[in-house]
């Protein structure tokens, strides 16, 4: 049973979180039943990742990788060779499409096809303005000195 939530009432209390609700709505959508071809996602370091997709039988011209606004799409469509008559066809050659939602500062560093394995290298590059920085605490010397309270002088009564 698929349950769909309406996030519209929350928009009036959350300013600037529109993207979070879009991500929640996208996650709710039904995923394709087939996760073919299989893939791995590996974290190589603190800020580097690799997606490996098993695409045996696909040539470089049969694959298409696009990256647009935090969405990495890998699609494959094998070109059929005309005139071949299969007695048994066990190697899948059907079209596929995988979509990967990437974080804001993750960029595609490159792709490589070797021995039927498509590897896509990703790197997270956080701009200097968004990195945490240390704030020095300064004191105001004028406020640091204690000022003696002012006294009102009056004549002493005899």
UniProtKB/TrEMBL annotation:
Which CDD domains does the protein's record reference?
Answer: ACD_IbpA-B_like
Keywords assigned: Stress response
Q: Which domain of life is it from?
A: Bacteria
Which Pfam families does this one have?
HSP20
Q: Where is the SHSP domain?
A: 30-140
Q: Does the keyword ATP-binding apply?
A: no
> What family is this?
Belongs to the small heat shock protein (HSP20) family.
Report the protein name in the record. Answer: Molecular chaperone IbpA
- Annotated source species: Pseudorhizobium tarimense
């Amino acid at each position: 049973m698929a349950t769909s939530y309406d996030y519209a009432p929350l928009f009036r209390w959350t300013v600037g979180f529109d993207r979070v609700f879009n991500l929640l709505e996208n996650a709710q959508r039904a995923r394709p039943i087939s996760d073919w071809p299989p893939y791995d996602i590996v974290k190589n370091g603190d800020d580097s990742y690799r997606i490996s997709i098993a695409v045996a039988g696909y040539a470089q011209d049969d694959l298409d990788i696009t990256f647009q606004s935090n969405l990495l799409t890998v699609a494959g469509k094998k070109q059929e060779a005309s005139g071949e008559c299969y007695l048994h066809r066990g190697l899948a050659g059907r079209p596929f499409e995988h979509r990967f939602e990437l974080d804001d500062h993750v960029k595609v560093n490159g792709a490589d096809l070797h021995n039927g394995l498509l590897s896509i290298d990703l790197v997270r590059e956080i701009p200097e303005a968004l990195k945490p920085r240390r704030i020095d605490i300064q004191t105001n010397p004028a406020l640091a000195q204690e000022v003696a309270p002012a006294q009102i002088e009056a004549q002493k009564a005899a």
